[in-house]
Structures are given as structure tokens and as C-alpha cells.
């Protein structure tokens, strides 16, 4: 049977609450326990009650009467002030269950009212409620959204009030309740005590009279609010789902926003042929997508009726598990575009009748049971979701493989890819078959095809090259080239234990390698050059520079490079969550955060440019696809354009010119455009690309991808792709690379039917490579193209990828390669998660001290009591063993987390020896070892010094594994 944890890894957990806008009973811990017994996870409550509303309305009435009585006077009446909250104004009090409630501010206020009196009263109510929620230590507060009829001025007033509320507490999270489709939140009978009803006619303008709703109006209002609030991390959206969902484009836009709550009113449910309450397929798909987010929203079932069993304690209740038959939970026809977005009065009466019948005779919580049914039958997590769990929208700086020696765990992440290495093996095998079919000569003395895997890492490509030789029956001579001294150790071990000595392992920078050593002492050539140097944007990890530097060993007549070419691609994105994270970093941690291309597993985002004419209803919703098989990828295919391309091997004339420019000779020109001699300027690139924007939005940056042709021969091309348009066709389920993100310092507003123009450069000064990017927006009005805005020119030069100079010396592993590799053998690369540079003596000491501390502690708890009766001496023995155990753990962890911090490790070792050792001896024989008394505090000082050394040693930080 699967454990709950293993099930959570496959199916996300849903948190569902009960919300009633007209709750008759005040919330209590007993009511909370009751709804949790029914299967709910939380309960909602207003912060204040009707008593407080009556007080405010009475104050307003008194103020209006005073104004009327003084109408003949020239004096201005002071605005009304609401007295402090009284105990009768709120049912809430601090308790241990306070975090299990969702709190609502009053819906009857109007923060953006054009009437200054109404706005003034509304702000007072709002701030008092927020302050009391903060006092209660509440963490989740829902604020009804702004009244769009008040216009832009009303929205800005509303946003200003929200910004003020965010400063009321450090732990208070505010969620603005917004309708998804531009309509009003469902309410059949508007509150007669709504303050908006009392706005004076002279303040109501024509612009504020009701108009036909614009589907994007509520999103635009939300965008204004969060922009004024500087993308605050404690501000998010509570999204109200209508009965008929809006366009796929608007759904994707809301999906990209910081969703915290999905509010599903009773009117959004349909009734199927069995009389059961169900949601349309569009609702199912949207909910499934939202619940896959890194921080999934909670679900609130709103106004689905009274809580069963509250008024009838004898009613038999059952916990809602979601075990429904397929017939009961069968889909109902989705409301068409011509149908009402809300139930008609007849439909509403029918639904109420069925709800009452179901509650009385069958399922007391039919809506909840259906949602639990969806939870049990949701699509399982994909391999990428399980692999990248926790890394959604997590920003990582790109790898610097030329200047940094990667850790074993980073290599291990790459090797988990189920597609990449299989495709590489196919590419090598096809190249070998073509080699044999074309009867090419080889560069070896014995006729074997010479393969060099440059940047071998832990050896997965070496294994695949050997596999390809065995599957084709074509003998090969394999060289593994690796500069990382730690990976080199593992490659040598693989060669002895796994590859049977068939590989020549060379420790050197690939650019310094002179080629295979021949029997006469000269250096030969390579027939096939295999590498995996690509980054998230193809060339951002210096693949062009590395392969240029090693091309001198490739046979100039018939040499093959795998990969043979690669292209970089990008598209504009809306990524509010990532931009908020970057803004926070730029103001507190790294001022250059917006100048770095970040590697990130994009999750909560929206494509701003997509192909027109795509079906409004995804095919999977109309072709009978079961909900458990839904594809949860973005519903609209984006427009992704190519930035530039690199091909290998380069023409000899290009490399000759590069060599001529290196060193600054007179015939080599006047140097590079951005510095240096210009020897690497052939790897400079520039592009200028336009994207059409169909719907209004905000551009936060550019998402970057790549495609590569590993090999293209007589059997067709073998390709890899992270481009969302082509990935499924070329390398579906590949997980080695996450996209790259080029952020904008200032989000750019884009109207519908506008255009953006992206300029991007790949610069080099022979010492490093960096990117620069610029975004402009345009709109065509009456045939004239008008510029709307231009971003900063962003440059990653200060964080560029360094091109280090290759070192000439290299060392060749003494085991000679096997002359052929056609034997039946399928080697496997073992896992290696420990660092090769781990200080083994300290690791051993820590383990030994830890083991002895357990034995000493057990002896003190049992055997020592027969020899020593003094409780204080026994307590000292126990203290010494506990300190020894704790610091032995600290020592072993330090060898992993901070292997270079030998000072901390030495102090821990000395401190344990002196502190615990002296106490053991003093407990056993105080008189004989009384001279050790001063040693104990000295050992304590060493232990304290070890912690200080660990804190000061900056290289000891534990970092998550890197992804490409």
C-alpha cells in the first residue's frame, strides 16, 4: 500500500474550505471541528459582524442629518469618526485554532468611493478590521475587490488603502477577491446596508454608471493594485470562478498571477443527468493546473447551503472521501457562449431543490464530495514535475563549467535524464553506421573509429559511446577528456571496474589537449568529437568557445562533431512571481539581479505572444479525454523565434583568422568591438525580432530555450529541444535543462494588438561572454507605427561567463584502451553523491566519535551506576556524552558542507577530545585526574571556536543542486 507521502509525490494535496457570505451562526471552535469532521480543511469568517455594520450606518445617518440641518451655514461639517471596536462588534478572540480560519473584511464598504464621506468611513472600517486581524495573529485575510464602476480613480484609492494595510503586520497575507471574467461577484440581492448605496448623487459621474463588462477589466484593476503595492510578497489573488470560464488567454493570464484562493460559488456548478453537482471540463482543467503550482491555492466552496448537521444534531454525518461512482460524477454539458453566465431563476430553483434532496437523503456534502472525487482522479504528476519538485520558479545562476569544478550531485542531476543520453547513443550509433557505409578511413592505427568525449563528467556519454559500438559492431577507440580533478578520479575507477580498460582517460582542459598519442610519440586526430556543453540558451555555457578550442584535434577531412549545430530561441513572458522575487533581491541582496540571465523551471507564467486562430476550447476537452489523462501544459501554443545559430566544426578560415587576431598583431585588425584582441569575435551574435501581442498584458522578461541537431545522416536528424513548440516532437520528457529567463528591470505594459521588438546581443572581449537585451513596444494607429515604451539596456557583463586560459600539460591514465569494443558488455555508471574533495580523516574521526558517544552514553545510563552513586557525577557523564554526540555530527556535516574549513573541523575535534575526555576521567576518578579540571573549559572554548569558524567560513554554505 502506498504511503501518504508517496501518494503526495504523485497526486497534489488539495485544501478545501467552506465559505458562506450569509452565515447565520458565529464561528466557534466547535463549528470548525464539525466541518472538519465532514471533510473540510478550513472555515471562513468575517472579522466584524452586523452589530458593527449597524453602528457605522447609524453614524452615517447622524452625519447626513447634521449636514442637512447645517445646510444654510457656511461651516463645513467634520467628517464622521468611528469609535474603537467593542466586544459586541466581533465574535473573534485569540485561540489556538486561529490559523485554521480564512478571514474576510467587510464587503459592504467602498474604499474607492467617489464620495469622500463614504471613502472616509470605508477606510476606517477597513483599517480597524485589518488591525484586529493582526492582533489575532491571523495570517490569511480576504479583501473584496474594488468596485470597477468607480473608475481608475477609485482603483488607485483602493490600492492605496491595501498598501497601507500591508504595513499593519509582518505575517498578514492579504488576498484580493477578484472575479475572473470582469463581472461582479455573485450576489442576487445586494446588501441594503452597502455604503455604496449612500454615495451622494453629485459625486456619481456618467463614467461611473454600469457598462458592459470587459473580460480583462478585473485583471487590469488587479495589475494596478499590485503595481502600486510594488509586487508585495504578501499580496495575492483570491479568484472567483464564474459558471462559464473566459477565454483560454485570460485563464492563462490569471494562472500566472499569485493565486492563493480559488473561490467556487454554488452557481458555478452544473447538474448532470444523475442529478449530481459537477463542474465543466474547463473548470476541471483550470483547477488541475492551478493545484500543480509550487504554492497551490486553497479552494473555497461558497454559498453551497447551510452546513449539514448544525441545526440537526441527530443527523448521521459521514466524512467526504470522494469515492463516487463514474456515473454519479459524470460530466454535464458545459454552458455555451450563448447561455447565461449565471443560472436562470428556474435553474437556480432546481439546483436548490436538488441540493436539499441530496443533503437530506443521500450525500450531505455533494459539492465537497465531488471536489474530493476530482482530487482522487486528477492527472498524476509528470516525470518533470516529480524530478523538479520544489524548483518551480526557483532562480539559479547559470553554471560556469570552465571556471568551476562541478560537484558530483550536479552531474547526478544531469544523468537522471531519460531521453538525452539515449538520443546521444542513437546519434553516435548512426554516425558509426554512416561511417561504415561510406567506407571512410579512420584516424587510428588499427582501423577503429576514434571517439573523444570532451568534458566527460562522470562518464555517461562514454558509456553511451561504448554501447553504440557494441550495438553496431563497429570497433572504436574512446578517449575521455575531463579537467575536473575530482571527476577524473571517478572516471579512472569506471575504466577499471566498468569499462574494462577500454577507455583512455585524460585529465586536461579540452582546449589544451593535443590529441591521441600515437605509438611513435606523435599526436593523432579524432574522428568523432562528442560533448554535452550546451546550456539553457544553447551557447550560454560557452559551448562555441570550448569546441573552437578543441577543433584542432578533429580530423579536418571527415571529422564529426556531436552536436553538429544548435540554435537559441526566446519569447516574451509575463512572470509576476519571478519578477517579485527579483525585485526583492535587487533591493536587499543583489543590486544586479535584473542583469543576470537566470536558469529557472518556469511554472507560473503566461505566454504574451501566441499563434492566432487556435481553438478556444482545447481539443482534449471535446474529444472525450478522461480527466486523469488531461495535459496540463499551457493551453495556447506560443510564438517562439530563433535568435541565432552555431555550427561545428567551424570552417578552417574562421579559426585561422581568430588565431591571427589573438595577440594583437598588426594584420589582425584593431582589436575587438567590446575589448580584447577580437580573437573570439566570430562568436559574437545579434538579433532583432518582433512579436505580435494579441491581448493586453505585462512583459516581465524573455523566456529562452534551445534546439540542437546532435547528428543528421542518412537516417535523418537526431535532435534535442527545450523549445515548447518543438520539444514534444524532438525530445519529449527530456529534463536535463530548465529554460533561461532574461528579466526586465521595469515591467512593460502592452496593450492589445500591439507589438514588441526585442534586440539581443551575445558579446565577448576574449575574457568573457555576456548578453545584452532591450525591449521596445509599438502600436500601429491609422497606419503609423508609434513607439509606446522602451526598456533599459540590460547587460550581464559583470556576471559574464569567464573564458579561462587552457593549460598545456595533461596527464594520461596508464591503462591503454582495448583495441576493439565489440564485446557484449553493458556498463552502468554507479551513483556517486559524496564530494571527491571530502576530508576523509575528519569524516572518519566524526563517525568514530559519534559511535563511541552512543556506547559511552549507554554505559553511563546502565553500567556506571553500579560503580558511582553520586547523581551529579552521573549527570556530568551524560552531559559529556551528549556534547560528544552533537559535535561529532557537526564535524561530519562540516566535512560535506564546508570541506575546506579545516579550522572548524580541527577545533571541533580538539574540543570534543578535551571537553568530553576530561569529564569522563574526572567522573571515573576525581582525585587521580583533578589536574584535568582546567582542560574542560579549554575544550569548551574550542567547541565555541569551531562554531564561530564555521559561521565565518563563507564557503561552507549548503547549496541546492544545480540545474542547467
Q: At the first level of CATH, what is the class of the largest domain?
A: Alpha Beta
User: How many discrete structural domains?
Assistant: 4
CATH topology of the largest domain: TIM Barrel
Please state the overall shape, judged from the principal axes of the Cα atoms. Answer: globular
Q: How would you characterize the largest beta sheet?
A: 8 strands, parallel, barrel
Number of helices: 23
CATH architectural arrangement of the largest domain: Alpha-Beta Barrel
Please tell me the overall pLDDT. Answer: 86
Stretches where pLDDT falls below 50 for ≥5 residues?
1-7, 356-361, 807-839, 954-958
> Which percent range describes the beta-strand content?
15-25%
Can you tell me the CATH superfamily of the largest domain?
Answer: Divalent-metal-dependent TIM barrel enzymes
Structural class: alpha/beta
> Rg to the nearest angstrom?
34 Å
**Helix amount:** 25-40%
Largest sheet: spatial strand order: 1-2-3-4-5-6-7-10
Gap between N and C termini, in Å? 36 Å
How many strand units? 29
Transmembrane segments: 840-864, 935-953
GO molecular function: protein-arginine N-methyltransferase activity
Organism: Periconia digitata
Keywords: Membrane, Methyltransferase, S-adenosyl-L-methionine, Transferase, Transmembrane, Transmembrane helix
